[in-house]
């Protein structure tokens, strides 16, 4: 039986990856320090013989007994308010954490895939963003802690590949959404849906003309699975190229939720990228992958998930 270690297992994407690899018949070892994740995302796996959970901070030495065939390194705060709140941990998990996991992959002779991000392109001057674009990142701005940690992560991963011959894969994930996002993580989808459910106005930052392109979680997981199984070493964008302005998106959420609230405008966060849309030609060509779930379908499922949460979750203040 193949064995896979998934870091960030109790988080949004990590927990869906655990489900997928269990379904594929793997022995899954989940690892997480629960700093932004929620154990309830993987509780349903605890009774399985082929699932183990390690409560561990990957910036500390990582040890896993027995063989490992694959490692997916997904541990990292991912929402802007999370990484602005814990900037040093964010830098450490992308750098020291990645170093630890590359070392483990080398020791076990395992293939490792690391979770990079569209944030490596920063506030992009090229649109849509293809993997060839080097990016436009403000190293010393508040978002730099995340962006530069991820850029370092890509560099050290390629160095392990080139210097040690390690089998490495790099996925550049674009805004992904779906059930198990944290209601209060500040990202735009839980923020808007939470506001609609609480009967609050929807907070659009800036004038709402900035764009994003949202990818549903099952499409993201499929892209990651295919990349891990491929023999392609350079980074690959996985995201949905269907772009929308945040202002229009707020209107879509007002329609979806039937709320009678309105949009209010707040200050745009520093270095908030004005445009983002993946060029997915590479994923199409190499992985024969493209997204299947359109925004209407994905948002309905996501809204149903948030609606099903206990009311006290809705009013829990984190920040
Ligand atoms: P998330 O916050 O839901 O999950 C991250 C998980 O990592 C959490 O469970 C957290 O507790 C864990 N973690 C953080 N630091 C850790 C540490 N030092 N040791 C052990 N565990 C630690 O976020 P997510 O949206 O699921 O993101 C997962 C990964 O995908 C991240 O690496 C993120 O950078 C990347 N990514 C996500 C998106 C997206 O749209 N969701 C976009 C680009 C990249
Ligand atoms: N945003 C917003 N209102 C909110 C939360 C976010 O207008 O309550 C905007 C944010 O400024 C950004 C976009 O929505 O332009 C996406 O933000 P998110 O935090 O989801 O992810 P990002 O792509 O910026 O990492």
From TrEMBL:
Gene Ontology BP, a term: D-xylose metabolic process
EC number, UniProt record: 4.1.1.35
Gene3D superfamilies: NAD(P)-binding Rossmann-like Domain
Residue ranges annotated for the NAD(P)-binding domain, each copy included: 5-302
Chief localisation class: Golgi
Subcellular location: Golgi apparatus, Golgi stack membrane
Keywords per UniProt: Decarboxylase, Glycoprotein, Golgi apparatus, Lyase, Membrane, NAD, Signal-anchor, Transmembrane, Transmembrane helix
Record InterPro entries: NAD(P)-bd_dom, NAD(P)-bd_dom_sf, UXS-like
Topology term for the membrane: Single-pass type II membrane protein
Pathway the protein takes part in: Nucleotide-sugar biosynthesis; UDP-alpha-D-xylose biosynthesis; UDP-alpha-D-xylose from UDP-alpha-D-glucuronate: step 1/1
Enzyme class: lyase
Gene Ontology CC entries for this record: cytoplasm
Any one Gene Ontology molecular-function term assigned to this protein's record: UDP-glucuronate decarboxylase activity
UniProt keyword Cell division present: no
Reported cofactor(s): NAD(+)
Family stated for the protein in its record: Belongs to the NAD(P)-dependent epimerase/dehydratase family. UDP-glucuronic acid decarboxylase subfamily.
Name of the protein in question: UDP-glucuronate decarboxylase
């Amino acid at each position: 039986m193949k064995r896979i270690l998934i870091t960030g297992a109790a988080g949004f994407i990590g927990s869906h990856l655990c489900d997928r690899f269990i379904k594929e018949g793997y022995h899954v070892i989940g690892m997480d320090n629960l700093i932004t994740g929620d154990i309830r995302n993987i509780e349903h796996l605890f009774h399985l013989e082929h699932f183990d959970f390690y409560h561990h901070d990957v910036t500390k030495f990582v040890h896993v007994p027995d063989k490992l065939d694959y490692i997916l390194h997904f541990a990292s705060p991912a929402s802007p308010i999370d990484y602005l709140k814990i900037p040093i941990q964010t830098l450490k998990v992308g750098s020291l954490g990645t170093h630890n996991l590359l070392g483990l992959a080398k020791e076990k002779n395992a293939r490792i895939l690391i979770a990079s991000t569209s944030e490596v392109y920063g506030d992009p001057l090229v649109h849509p963003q293809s993997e060839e674009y080097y990016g436009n990142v403000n190293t010393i701005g508040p978002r730099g802690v995340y962006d530069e940690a991820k850029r370092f992560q890509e560099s050290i991963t390629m160095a392990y590949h080139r210097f040690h011959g390690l089998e490495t894969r790099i996925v550049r994930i674009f805004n992904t959404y779906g059930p198990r996002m944290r209601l209060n993580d500040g990202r735009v989808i839980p923020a808007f849906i939470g506001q609609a459910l609480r009967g609050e106005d929807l907070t659009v930052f800036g004038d709402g003309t900035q764009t994003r392109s949202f990818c549903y979680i099952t499409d993201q997981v499929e892209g990651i699975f295919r990349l891990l199984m491929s023999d392609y070493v350079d980074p690959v964008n996985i995201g949905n190229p269907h772009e929308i302005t945040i202002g229009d998106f707020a209107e879509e959420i007002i329609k979806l939720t039937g709320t009678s609230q309105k949009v209010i405008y707040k200050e745009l966060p520093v270095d908030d990228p004005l445009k983002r849309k993946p060029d997915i030609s590479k994923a199409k060509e190499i992985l024969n992958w493209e997204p299947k779930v359109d925004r209407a379908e994905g948002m309905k499922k996501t809204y149903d998930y948030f609606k099903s949460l206990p009311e006290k979750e809705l009013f829990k203040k984190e920040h």
